[in-house]
Every structure is written in structure tokens, then in C-alpha cells.
Amino acid sequence: MSEVLYESHDGFAEITIHRPEKYNTFTHEVVDQLHAAWQRFAASEQDKAAILTGSGDKAFTAGANLRDIPHDLFRAIPGVGVPVHKPVIAAVAGLVIGGGLAMLQFSDIAVAAENTKISYPEAKVGFAGGLIASLAARIPHKAAMELLLTGEPIDARRAYEIGLVNKVVPVGQQLEAAREYARKIAACAPRVLALLKDFVGQTLPKGPTEAAGIARARILDDINASRDFIEGIDAFHAKRTPVFTGR
Predict the structure, then answer these.
(1) 145-163, pLDDT tens digit by residue?
(2) CA-CA distance, 140 to 224, in Å (whole number)?
(3) Torsion angle of alpha carbons 204, 101, 143, 57, nearest 10°?
(4) How far is CA 149 from the centre of its chain?
(5) How far apart are CA 13 and CA 7, in angstroms?
(6) Is residue 224 part of a domain?
(7) What's the DSSP call for residue 57?
């Protein structure tokens, strides 16, 4: 069964992390399936915006599975692991932990249900990935540092006060509120939306892990999937001189 659902609506996509019995935690499979979902969205001509959400109201996502941490989480982040030039809207409820906050920070617009609890407990568990660093470029510096250095949660109202989410709604209404944003965006000029998103992306500072993820996704992965890569490996095994074409 798929752990990430993709549905196309009238002009926008809904991408859902679908592991409600496990609080929508990130596994290697979830990372792979989110990566594929963002590729599908980026290539879609009909989906002009995407909503990212989690199944149920108990958790957007409780973060990584600490028994088998997916250290390549950057691959699941739109704009980092996959180039995405279209708007992304997060619709969250319940627990938003660790990588869930990273997902939230990289969305363009966010809606939170009133029961939302956001935390980043890496300092408490002794694990760090670094994607979160640019949170300080998206909300006030001291608010970001309080979240990161204490690991203590904030509620939906505090998230709204510091600009982490755009709107707080009753539990169960977060997806429809996100759809309202998506419908408005889908009615706008796609090339202008892409230009504005890209220019803002160039304006915002990027942390080291984020910059490395972008470089890998946009340059290294392209090289490693090229015909020259296949030719080079084949030539090595055949003990012949490779013939490279630049493709």
C-alpha cells in the first residue's frame, strides 16, 4: 500500500503522508514516495499548486522513525530534493515534529488546525540533520532558536504569532482552508507564480545542508543519471576507452 497519496483536483494536487497508525512518521519508503510525488507535481501541466498534508488529525507527521532514520530526508523536501517552481501549501494538524517542521518551513503558505503542536527535539535525542537551519530566515531569529535549542513545543496560536503559519482553523477544517488558497493560486498566471517563488527562493538564505541537498538534486543526481555515467561504468567493466557525448 502506498504511504504517500497523490490526488489531482481542479488545478491543484493534494499530497498526503498516509501512515496514520504510525503518526505519519518518515521512513525510507515515505522519503522515496514523497520524492516521486514532488517529481510528478513538478512535471504536471494541470497541477498549478500542491497541498501537503498528513492523514488524520492526530499528526501531520511525528518526524523520522528513530529506529531507522532516513538520513536522506532532504530528498522529500520540495525545492531541496526536487526542484519545484510552483506554490506549496501545508495543511497541518496535531503533531508536527522534527522533519515535519522542516516540511512546514519550506512550504510557501501554511494552515494549522487548533490542535497543532510543533517541536524540533533533535537536541534532546542527540541527532541532527541540519535542514532546519534556514528556519531563522523565515521567522524571527530568537523564536527559531527557542524552538531549536530547547526542543519544547509551541501551539498553533504561537506559530501564527511568529509567522510560521498563515491561518489557524478548527480541527478538521485545515484541508479545506488550504484548498481555498490552492484554488486562488490555480487561477493565477503560472509563469508569474514561478518567477515570484524563484526570486523569493534566491533571496532567502540557505543553510549548509539545504545548499548541499540542492546541489546534489540539481547537479550530482543529474550527472549520475546521465548517459555518460552509464557509458563510463560500462567502459570500466569492459576495459575499454569510454566515448562520452555530454548527455
Answers:
(1) 999 999 999 999 999 999 9
(2) 39
(3) 130
(4) 22
(5) 6
(6) no
(7) S
**H-helix or E-strand spanning residue 113:** strand 109-113
Interatomic CA distance for residues 187 and 96, integer angstroms: 30
Within a domain: residue 227?
no
CATH code at position 9:
3.90.226.10
Q: Position 94: which residue type?
A: G
Boundaries of domain holding 69: 4-206
Which range among 29-38, 163-172, 223-232, 237-246 shows the weakest confidence by mean pLDDT? 223-232
Ramachandran area for residue 34 (φ above 0: left; ψ -120 to 50: alpha; else beta)? alpha
Residues across the chain? 247
Residue 199 backbone phi and psi in degrees, to 5: -65, -40
